Amino acid sequence: ANASIFAIISAFFFEPLPVKDPDRLVLVLQKSAIWKMPHGHSWLDYQDYRDRVGGFDGVIATFMMPVHLSAAGQPPERAWIEATSGNYFSMLGVEPAQGRLFQRGEGEKAGTDPFIVLAHSYWKRRFGADPSMVGKTVFINGHPFTVIGITPEKFFSAQWAIGPNAFVPATMLAQL
Question: Is the CB of residue 35 less than 8 Å from the CB of residue 58?
Fold first, then answer.
């Protein structure tokens, strides 16, 4: 029992995220008079931090949300996706297991990049690790998204203890 408890504590508190320079990551939240708990920023706030605030090597944006995810011939499944800025994977130094990840310039204009990157564990469970998934269309809340890549097996998210099923550009949120 002690070994199991230590393994869980070790995994959550002592193992660094499998990203480039995990000890340099900083989470920036805000606290308002109305909402006393720390919470995230708007997309416009993110752009201001990215474009105008010095002292950071770079800034990424991320937002978790539940969706209905389906593929041709399969019923929709409730899944969690992480909507991210286009520089999310490159800033974290994450390389794809299959296909590609978001590229420079993608995820900058609202509604123009209906791409999805599947999390490795979700790709294995839901699609049987089918390498031909890259390039196929899946549907998020009924909207088509092209699968462009699969994350590496050991990458789950830049957020601690969270493992979304997929990643989409944050600029696609209005379509969802």
Answer: no
pTM assigned to the model:
0.83
CB 63 within 8 A of CB 173: yes
What residues pair up with 166 in beta bridges, in sequence order?
81, 118
How many whole angstroms separate alpha carbon 27 and alpha carbon 129?
Answer: 32
Token pair 């909402």: residue: 35
Smallest CA-to-CA distance from 65 within 153, 144, 165 is with 165
Closest CA to 170 of 100, 89, 82, 90: 82
Phi and psi at residue 15, to the nearest 5°: -85, 125
What Å distances lie between residue 41 and 28, 29, 32, 59, 82, CA to CA? 8, 7, 11, 12, 15
Closest CA to 20 of 80, 77, 111, 95: 95
The pLDDT tens digits of the residues spanning 28-64 come to 777 777 877 777 778 788 788 788 887 777 788 888 8
Coil vs helix vs strand at 121: helix
Measured in degrees and rounded to the nearest 5, phi and psi for residue 99 equal 65, -135
User: In this structure, are strands 137-140 and 166-169 parallel, antiparallel, or unpaired?
Assistant: unpaired
Whole-angstrom Cα Rg for the chain: 17
| Structure tokens that stand for 175 in this block | 């379509």
